[in-house]
Every structure is written in C-alpha cells, then in structure tokens.
Structures
1.
Amino acid sequence: MQSNAQLIVKLVVYFLLCIIAFIYLLPFLWMFGTSLKADTELLDFPPKFFPSKPHFDNYAKAINRFPFWKYFLNTVIITAGNLVGVIVSAPLVAYGFSKVNWKGRDAMFFIMLSTVMIPGAVTMVPTFMIFKNLGWLDTFLPLIVPAFLGGGAMNVFLIKQFFSTIPNDMIEAARIDGANDWTIFRKIMLPLSKPVLALISLFTFIGSWNNYMGPLIYITSEEKYPLALGMPMFMNRYGTYWNQAMAAATLTFLPTLIFFLFAQKYLIEGIKLSGMKS
Amino acid sequence: MQKKNLKSLILGLLFISPWLIGFIVFTVYPIVASFYYSFTDFSITTKPKFIGFGNFSRMFSDELFWKSLINTLVYVIGLVPLGLFIALGIALLLNKKYLRGIPFFRAAIYLPSIVPAFAFSAVVTLFFHPYLGFVNTILSWFGINGPLWLSSEVWAKPTIIIAAQWGVGGAMLIFSAALKDIPKELYEAALIDGATKSTMFRKITLPLITPTIFYYLVTSTIGNMQIFDLPMLLTGGGPANASLSLGIYIYKHAFTYTNMGYASALAWVLFGFILVLTLLYFAFSKKWVFYLGNE
C-alpha cells in the first residue's frame, strides 16, 4: 500500500516535470516550426506546430533581408573584446585584493562589491558624455573598453574566492626562491585558475552576447549593428513575414544553443557556485 | 617596516589599478556628475544650466513619471514572488533522490534563461500573437476568446511578467544548490522522531533555505526595479504607455528627448527607491532569515 502511494507520487513528479520542461521549450519549438512554414500556412486555422513540408528557403529569404552575417560578426567582435578584457584585467585585480597585504584593502574590496547596487541608469548619462567627448560614439569601444577596467565586480569576486583556496605557503615558498608578485601571479596563480577563468568567460560571453541596452545607446549606424539591434530591426520592418522573422530569430538563437550544449555542465555548476558564494 | 608597508600598498594598488581607474572614471565621476546634472537643465547640445530642484518638482506633475513608477512597482510585485514560487517549486521537484533524467529537465528549463532578450522577444511576440499565436489558439479550443496580450493596455504588463518566467533558470539552479546543501542528518533525525513530510518541509527545508530566499529577493528586486530589455523590445513601453517602466522612461528622456538633466533626476529617484527597498529587506531579515550555526 505504502509503495503504491509512493509510486503515484513519483509518477506525479515525473508528469509535472515533463509538462514544465515542455512549457519551457514550447516557444522555441513554435519558433522553429513557424520558421519552416510556407507563407500560405501562416494563416491556417488551427495553426499546425510543424508544416507538412519544411520550407528551409525562409532562412535564405531572412538572410537576404538583413545582413545577418555582418551583425553576427559585429556581435562576435564585441563579445571577443569583452572576453579578452575580462580575462586580462579581472585576475590582476583579484590578485591585488587577495594575495597582496595592504592597508585599506578589505575596505576597498567592500566598496567594489557595493558598486553592484548602483543602478546603471544613474551612471548612464555621464558615461555617455565621456564617450561622446572621446569621440567614441557609434564605435564598439564603449562596449568593449570598460571590460578592460577590472572586468566587473562579480568576476573579480569569483576569482578572489578561487585564489583564496590556493595556499599561501606556496606563494611564500616562491617568494623565498626570489620570485616577485608579478612572477607569482603569472607562473602560479594564473595556471592554477583555469577553472574559474573558464567560468567567468562563460558569464562574460552570455552577458556581452545578450547585451541590448549598450548597443542601443552607443551604436547608430546600421552596418555596425550587433544582432541585439539587427534582430529587433528585422522585427520592425518585416515582422509580418512570420516565417522569415522566426527564421531570423532561430538564427539568432542558434549560437546561444550551440554555446549552451558545449558549456552547460560548467555553466550549471558555476551558477550554483556563484549563487552560494554571494 | 614602514617601508615594507608602503611597498605593498603600492604593489596592491598597482594590481587593482585597472579596476581603480574604471571605478574613478566610470563610477565615481559619473555618480557625482549625474547628481549635479539632476539639478540642471541639460540637453546634449547645451551646457548644463543649474535649476535647483526644478527637475524634481517637475516629476510631481509629470503623469508619465507616475505611470512608469507604478508600472515598475507592478512589475516588481508581479515578478519577484512569481519567480520565487516557480524557481523554488521546480528546484523542489528536481530535488527528489529517485529522479532520473535530472540533467535533461534542468537543461530544458535553464536554456531559455540565457537566450538573448532580443531573440526571445521575437518568439514571445508570435507566441502571444492575438490571432496567429499559440496561446490564443489553445484558448480558442476551449471556446475562450483570448485577449490581445501585448497590444492590450490591460494585458501588456501581465504578458511581460508571464514571458519573464521563462528566465527563472538561474534562480532555480541557486535554489537547487541550496536544497542540496541541507545536511541529510537533519531529515534522518526528524524521521526517527516521526516527523511528517510537511513538518520536515516547514521546520527544516524552509528555514535552511531562507538565506537563499533572502538573496533572491534582494537581487531580484534590485534587478526588476530596473526592468528594461523585455518591455522595451516587446512593446517599447506601449500601448498608451501601459508597459512603460521607469528604466525605459529614463532611457527615453536621456536619448530620445535628450533631457539629460531630467533623466539624471529620474535615475536618482529610481536609485532612492532601490535603496529604500533594500534597506527594508535587511531591516526585516532578522525576523525570518535563519543562519545555521548562529543559534
């Protein structure tokens, strides 16, 4: 009797999870299905999930309507710039906050963490004016250069946490052997930190790839659009061609999907880790 | 000794110098400048002109400010608890020991949360399309005439709140990790004492994840007070400003109407609201947030 009740509970849990997983994937299935429909099938009632015959030419048409590859490349450039910036600068800052003892260090670290609280809207206008005065409007620089300046408080925090697991004895031993901090940083800390650097690369990739407000503020010429601006523009102009619009959306979604398939294990472990540490 | 201290101070500052420069140029200076701008009349082309509290008194009679503020609070009141129930609910379902296929379920639920808003919004627009959309098609099978969703003044905000639930994956993972961290011995001991499942949930599970719930409430409230991407992409704040958030309204004043001074003042008001809400959370946290080892 007891085991029967347990079986029912199990079945209910599985049933619920299947429904939930289905709901979470549903919009994307609908997107993909619509992207393969013929123009005439769009108005079918009731609409079908997948067309009887897939029309892959919607993808070719979508790419003809907007320079997908150019926007894709622009996004890649911005994202790559951010990745380099974060990887170069965040570990340096984390080292200064964890393995060098200086007066005021912990207070400064606290200040760094508390900057996360400040809404972007507060700093938005003066930051825009800075880039305007530098003549950097309508270039990728405002979207890339800030990444070189510390790489974000959360990233520094995660690397610092990781550094603190590397024993100080090891560093002291190197110091006795005559190594200076720069050598220790490069030869000991960086090689040991590959896991955490991989993790913050994943976060940086997602953050930069998905950034919408940054390009919206700084990029005005269409040929410099990243996908973040190209896709909404497509929707505005050709949104009524639903099959092509969904083909464009599928193309925009695809890099994230591929990234996810490769990185999901690290990503899922990493998010748990960062959530706990915070 | 003195010299050694100075040397390590310089060394430390050198290492953190990238952040320090960024902090001064892109945080400290902008905060000071935007505070000053908030008391000025300032468009991109003209120099800031000091007008005292002009921008702040303007807000009192600015209907759109009040509308966007109320909309933002509606977003927060809708999004924060709903996200909590859904993320925690899924995490609890996934926390069953006997469960197979956890990686699949987790991946399926997490994936939408990293899809960029600019791609997701196109999907949502079609999904909730009044005539061609999936949702209204299903509703029509039950003889229900679905609403206009994003094109309806009443339904625009709820639609955005519903759409945002596809992004709870990150919170779900954090709750999952918190649930996994609860020491098994506590449940074993409770079982021996004859505790029921619901007692164990109320007396063990829930208290031990209150720090995570607290973390979620604070970060989700701060984040959603600034909600921008989804409403901007889905409706641009419409129809008739029904989904206009404070974030969008600030953006529009700064870059569409180039009222940089007014935009800065609005941003400071937003900051004020965020600070007050955060302080309230912390003030009430002692009443319900439980830290293992503190008692």
2.
Amino acid sequence: MNDKYDSDVNEVHLKSVIDSLDNSIEHLDANTLSRLNQARHRALDQAGKPRLFNSQWLKAGAFAVLLVTVINGWLFISTPDIQQMDTDAFELVVTNEDFELLQDLDFVAWMIEQEHAS
Amino acid sequence: MTLENRQALNRFLASVERRAFRMAELATSSPDHAMDIVQDAMLALVKNYSHKSEADWGPLFHRIMQSKIRDWYRRSRTRNSVFSWLRTAHDDDENDSYDPIQQAADIVSLAPDSSANNEQLMAVTLQAIRQLPLRQQQAFLLRAWEGFDVRETAKAMGCSQGSVKTHYSRATRALKQTLEAYSHE
C-alpha cells in the first residue's frame, strides 16, 4: 500500500519535472533559437567539405609507417653478422694477445710439424 | 553527402537541438557554453557519423553530448582549482552572497498566458536539476526526459548499468525532496 502511494507520488513529481523541462524548451528566446539554427547549418555545411584526414588516407598512412618500421627492423636484425665480423677483426688487430700470437707463429708451425712427424 | 541525407540530418538535429541545449545549459549554468557544446556535438555527429543509419544518430548524438559535457566539466574544475588561489577575500564575500536562481540567465521567455505559479515551478525545477551532481543530472535527463532505458543511458554516459540505476535513484529522490519542500511553502 505504502509502496503504491510512494510510487504514485513519485510519478506525480516526475511528471511535474518533465512538464517543466518541456515548457522550458517550448519557450526558448528568439536569440537562442536563432543561434541553434545557425549552429545546425554550420554543422551541415561542414559535412559537404572533404575531410583533411579521411579514414582511407589515415589507414594508408598507418600502413606505410608500419611497413617502414618492419623493413627497418628486419634490416637491423639481418646486419649484425657483418658488424660482429668487423668488430672481431678490429679486436684481432688491436689487442695485445693477438700480437703475441702473431709473433709466436713460428712456434705454432713447429708444433704442427711435430704432430705430423709423430 | 546526398541532398536526402542532408535533409534527414537537418530534421534530426532540429528535433534534438532544444533538448540538447537545455541539458548542456543545466550542466554548465551558462547559455554560451551550452551553445558551444551543442555546436561541437552537431559537428562531430555530422563529420563522423552522417553515413550511419538514422536510427543510430540519436544514441550517438547523446553519447557525444554527454562526453562534451564531461570534458567541459573537467576543464572547468581544473581551471577553478588552478585559479582559486587568485581570488581575494573580497571575491569570496561576493561568492557568499551569490544566489544562483537570481543570477541564472533569463533564456526563457514565457508565453503571456503562463501563470506565475507555473513560471515559479519551472524555475525551481530547473534550479533543482542544476544543483544535482553531474552524473545524477545526466542519468535523470537521459532516463526520464529522453526516455532512454538503463542500457542506452549507460552507453551514453560511458558507465555501468548499475551506476545509472544508482545515479537515477538518487536524482529522483533529491528532486522529490526539493519539489515537496516547494509545494509545502
């Protein structure tokens, strides 16, 4: 019973609020109506204009950027052998150990001859 | 865009613009800001969704509107918090005596045959809605005035259906209390 009463009261209040809201837009002043009209026509005029970045160009651009990134990545991954080789050669030239190895080549050659002889 | 499509969009926007303006005005308490929000929403709909079916325009338009209102609200809060320290004691005194009902812009010109009671009730009702927290206001206007169901309201507001129910319930309770207090005066 109380629930029904509350519900009816709520309905009355709700209807009153909705009526007030409806009244408020029925009697908007002329200036506001004119500005709304202008805003609508401005928006509609924009629809006819080509978009600077339409979705097809945007997709094409994104695909191009992705492609360039993938190619760069692939090139970067595929080149380290050469880079590694260059680094090894450079180390071979500059490190002291390798100079010592080159100086003892005669000793290495003698050891190989001994192995063959035995 | 074809002529038919343009005409359909024109009809649609003309049918929603007044309500949209009122919703934005209730949220911002500023006719100028409300007009900016409505215009931005119209532009966004026309630019991005004019190719969609007419049945989709309503929910999309209201989703854009609510999003624009939320953006405005966030910007407004940030601006207020940044510049609050600049306010002088004199300004604070003025704010203390600020009466939103007195200061509200007169953008309603009532018909000559409207009774003073109706005019007063409308002013009280609009002010009561204005004073609701933004989310309650949005939930109430979309559910009760636009006639959206809970799911559609949740989609437009970008929140869960449970939140919509909570906000709507609190809003109707607050409005009921305000109107009861007014009717007892």
